[in-house]
């Protein structure tokens, strides 16, 4: 089907450029409810994703314009290839965007994205992980398993475009999701939930994860609400990952994006401070968009258009250095094309983890939010505290409930970053950040 | 009004499904198959760009076989009869059978189910839909010089399914429509945004926005430039239907998805038949609600849609089930077994979840606030079924003093609290009703279309 599709793309009138992604994927999934299997499943999919570009004079003014539209072809649809490509040409012909090109041939970097251990026997990997989880739980008092899910996914992608770019790569993803229950006096129960996605089996230390989550579940039993006010706040681990990375798009990625700059939505300028009018008193932020991070979830040898993956300096010492730019927006903004964002890499800061807790308090340390996704446009955030700790001198008590709110960039202007770093799938950066002051809403 | 027919690719396989089930049941005590297809169109218009393109598209099937203890499944991204027949034979052969009871297939039914559509999206070309988006864009763009960009996004998705088990052969076809208009404004210092959403199951009639609505959207976006962060604390609040609905969805809805009962994750399991909220509170989940974004006629495990009353006058009366949880718990099925797609497992999931309408006019709800906040436009929420915490984020809060809106705005506003406290604090229920559509995850994945809403509610909540 692929060969016929390529021939059709070459010969269909109105196809001025094209891009083809051939994606084949498998998923092996294993579920536990309590300690028993709940479901076991496997999935196989294949699709051809075609982006067609059509050049035409604009309806108003007649200047050269380009439109783009995508269609996909699924197994058994060989007879529909011609009609689908004509449909794509029609849709692409409806819109008058400024012309842009596609990248040509390039040498792609070798990026670690596929783990042979996961590729060879995914079902066995799932069952072994489940066994490891259950074994680790044996060592945890007063804690039991509510549920667990293990996914081993593999995706092969072949990319080709009309300008000669060609590439192939394979990626694996491991998802481990589990919920632990802690039981206290009077039968009261609390839970801790974690979802971890990594490229490789070696990226998940299940024993350590179980130990930590079991402690979180037990601490939640004793947790009470924080008090209301503005306090120094430390955010660490997955909670920090959510705060910096967002669930869908980080304010860091949004404001440094050529696309959103082009659309007038990013106030950032190259050579200017990312903190705006705020005078910085914390560690200066240095950030990379890293698409070649070994085992990074966002890593890839090439992006959707065919630009090679790379590590791009976005922000140095709090000053914007570059916008990350796919081919189209690079041309629109007259900046070098850099490809897709990849992974968020933040350089470590000045503060050792051991010094993060200094001060007489009260000081809050958040380790889990219910949900945290800063608004990409305003960078304002608010999230319920699922678990944290309040420190007053040497006294530490777990907290749960209430919310933490602020603005990410105002907060970072006065924050200290840990010297220690963690790799959390698509985030490589400080393990913890100490904000000088954020708003806690509690009792 | 027209009805949606089953797409050709599903018509071709529908009649073959019973023989595939029979192939599974050569060894499995219970087998089922769900075949699905999705196709659509997306149109986006912004100040700088426009795009018309195919929406998310998929075709595939999942074969399910009970092995005596749980379901084993094979999913294929194909509707080719031979590929499915091979998968059914292989799954049956490889099944790890063990002794144990099996789910029942239910009463025999053979039907194709559809929702009526007023204006069939297929009756208009992609060009017409692009023009519609351009019109909304142009109208908004001329309303205020502080508007720096307007994004109009239209999507239509035709979703069709065919399901069979030993006794049932059912299919459905429906169209989900969304129109999202986002206005970005700037005063030169900061950028703010506000949005207007129209969504539902039906036809192009859903994607209508009046000039008054567009004007109100622009005015509110500009007003948000002066919004402050709210002083944290407990407030008397009036929630608009979108905020009330997400409170319903996150506060109690997720906690009564009974797969959570099987896993010991739901505190609600201890409260069946007990009071959890004010007697004014009635909470329902209804996948059969005509026109709502989360509607469907057939769940992904062969159950025909009907409403479920979750809370009646503040008493928890019934949870939402999928096949596995109903079977394990020995409770009746509700039509809430849903999958993100054929590639994912079914869970107990909400559909359209809402508080039932009361009898207090909205203006009286606000007039009854001596000092409080009117909350509107939910942007997100998160569940906590075990801890019964709740997190909802509203994009807009407006101060109310002496029963009057002052125009002082707060944004964003986080609402947190303990579910029974929030539900018990409901002191008045509005006589209005609206549903707001979106996508709901289970934890951080497994996204399905839902809606939530109801009337305006007056209650007490912690804001921050």
Kindly list the characteristics that best describe this protein.
heterodimer; A: 443 residues; alpha+beta; 6-stranded antiparallel β-sheet; 19 strands; B: 464 residues; 8-stranded mixed β-sheet; 6-stranded mixed β-sheet; 20% helix; 40% strand
Please provide a brief summary of the model.
With 443 residues, chain A is of the alpha+beta class. Chain A is 21% helix and 38% strand.
Sheet with most strands of chain A: 6 strands, antiparallel
**Class from secondary-structure proportions of chain A:** alpha+beta
Q: What is the average per-residue confidence, as pLDDT of chain A, rounded to a whole number? A: 96
Low-confidence stretches of chain A: none
Poorly predicted segments of chain B = none
Return the structural class of chain B. alpha+beta
Radius of gyration of chain B: 23 Å
Number of helices of chain A: 10
Write the element-wise H/E pattern of chain A from the N-terminal end onward: HEEEHHHEEEHEHHHEEEHEEEEEHEEEE
How would you state the average pLDDT of chain B, rounded?
94
Helix content of chain A: 10-25%
- Protein chains sharing the most extensive interface: A-B, 79 and 77 residues
Report the strand count of chain A.
19
Oligomer: heterodimer
Taken as a percent bin, the fraction of beta residues of chain A is 35-45%
Give helix % range of chain B.
10-25%
Ends distance of chain A: 63 Å
Q: Largest sheet of chain B, described in full?
A: 8 strands, mixed
Polypeptide structure, described:
- The complex is a heterodimer of chains A (443) and B (464).
- Chain A has ten helices and 19 strands.
- Chain A is of the alpha+beta class and 443 residues long.
- In chain A, the strands form three sheets. In chain A, strands 3-2-1-4-5-6 form a six-stranded antiparallel sheet. A six-stranded mixed sheet of chain A has the order 10-9-8-11-18-17, with helices on one face.
- In chain A, helix 4 packs across helix 5.
- In chain B, the strands form five sheets. In chain B, strands 2, 3, 4, 5, 6, 8, 9 and 10 form an eight-stranded mixed sheet that branches. Chain B has a six-stranded mixed sheet with strand order 14-13-12-17-24-23. Chain B has a five-stranded mixed beta barrel with strand order 11-18-19-21-25.
- Chain B contains ten helices and 25 strands.
- In chain B, helix 2 runs parallel beside helix 3.
- Helix content of chain B is 20%, strand content 40%.
- The longest helix of chain B is centred in the N-terminal third of the chain and has 16 residues.
- Classes of the chains: A alpha+beta (443), B alpha+beta (464).
- Chains A and B meet through strand 1, strand 2, strand 3, helix 2 and strand 4 of A and strand 3, strand 4, strand 5, helix 4 and strand 10 of B.
